């Protein structure tokens, strides 16, 4: 192929011009007399000829329409010349793309497909359909594979209409037989309508996606706020219970000290201990006096005075054993009030969180 490219660049273009259209060959074919023409040009010339088929160049007559042969060498050189003129780089058909049906060796990417010829053409081979009058009437579409599927199996005609009644593609003959009086429209119009519906559906889906994305972002933001709030609640709860524990411990220590103070004050205010010791001393003195009195004579007898003995009445004196009952009760009441107050704070926080529950949904 590379040697062919060099040779084609050295040959003059005049040797590759069709004598009928005066352009570089397109689909060149050779007649039995050895002259080369564009396939469409020689076919059109013979179709419009009123006399016997003859060669436009040498005027040789043929009593029957002769068979022509494809000249693949001239065709390939002609393609390179056209590309050199247009300075268009070769664009080979990639896997999955529609290839030109006319290219013999290097299959180029098709530019259009003809629904009349049922053939796909690259830019170079499409030239005749853009220049020859009869070929300009052919219907060209974007490159498509399996063009035979565009033909009606029953009438072997192009499926160019869409039957809305039966939701199927039909040809012109179908509308006069099986689909007579049915609601039919051109395929292009139906295609445009379906494209419009698809575009509207796509826009609606994109709108729904945006709404869902916005809601997802809101939920993510709410989750992040909830996480921060939860961490703060945990920290506050830890501080709360730490303070409660410290308060309980302080009140326990204070209560213990106050109970001991109450006990000391109760014992200090009572004179029973001192009175008991005083009576004990008096008893011992009386015992000593009695023993000495028995040994003396009647002349030395002296009466013993009991006036110094403290005989106060202690029957009304009593000592309370439960000195700290009130102190304990007050301390416990204070703790209960503290717990109730803190518990109310936690309850209010819980109610506040429940108020936002109805706004969270998926």
Topology:
Blueprint lengths: L1 H9 L17 E3 L5 E3 H9 L5 E2 L6 E2 L6 E2 L1 H15 L25 E3 L4 E3 L5 H5 L1 H4 L3 E2 L19 E3 L4 E3 L13 E3 H82 L3 H24 L29 H31 L7
Antiparallel strand pairs: 1-2, 1-5, 3-4, 6-7, 6-8, 9-10, 9-11
How would you describe what is shown here?
With 362 residues, this protein is mainly alpha-helical. The protein has 3 domains: 1-85, Zinc/RING finger domain, C3HC4 (zinc finger) (Herpes Virus-1, 2-Layer Sandwich); 88-150, 30s Ribosomal Protein S14, Chain N (Irregular), CATH 4.10.830; 194-265 and 322-362. Helices cover 49% and strands 8% of the residues. The chain has helices at residues 2-10, 39-47, 72-86, 127-131, 133-136, 187-268, 272-295, 325-355; strands at residues 28-30, 36-38, 53-54, 61-62, 69-70, 112-114, 119-121, 140-141, 161-163, 168-170, 184-186. It has a 3-stranded antiparallel β-sheet with strand order 2-1-5. It has a 3-stranded antiparallel β-sheet with strand order 7-6-8, with no helix packed on it. Residues 296-301 have low confidence and may be disordered. It comes from Oncorhynchus mykiss (Rainbow trout). This is Fish virus induced TRIM protein. GO terms for molecular function: zinc ion binding. Keywords: Metal-binding, Zinc, Zinc-finger.
